[in-house]
Amino acid sequence: MKEACFTLYGEIKTKARPRARIYNEKYAVIYTPKNTVNYENLIKLEYLNQTGKLYFGDKPLEVTIEANFKLPKSDMNIRKYYSNEKVLCVNHKDLDNIAKTILDALNKVAYDDDKQVCKLTVSKFYIFEGCEYVKVKIKELFGTVRDIRNNKHQLKLNVNKFSNSF
Description:
By secondary structure, the protein is of the alpha+beta class. It has three helices and seven strands, in the order E-E-E-H-E-E-H-E-E-H. A hairpin with a 3-residue loop joins strand 2 (19-23) and strand 3 (27-31). Helix 1 crosses helix 2 (95-105). The radius of gyration is 22 Å and the shape is flat.
């Protein structure tokens, strides 16, 4: 089973809403804002650089996303009371928007379409030191109807091969 991991350092951004521009008072053109396009391109570039251009095709996938935000300076004093390196983050950006940005950016780069993601785990934490980053892990899954059908066919071939040897 294939597996890919990569880390994206720097400010964590979410997908901005599509914008519309009206032309000739009749026509509207829908477009993605430039900062979203730039961030998605950065995600693509980091994925390709860190994973060796691993492509999952149309296989079912499990994706784990961990967003790590810098702890606000006003809360740094909790460090002396908490021994872990990470604290659960209830502020900042929405989990679903973080995931949407990453999954959309990896369409046609890591996999055919993000609808292949059958299992998604997204979490966010505060970190005490360093800059913000997102860790992404993509893992190929087994268990679709096609997988079972192909495996069943393979099992039949193995049984026939075994019975013909006697």
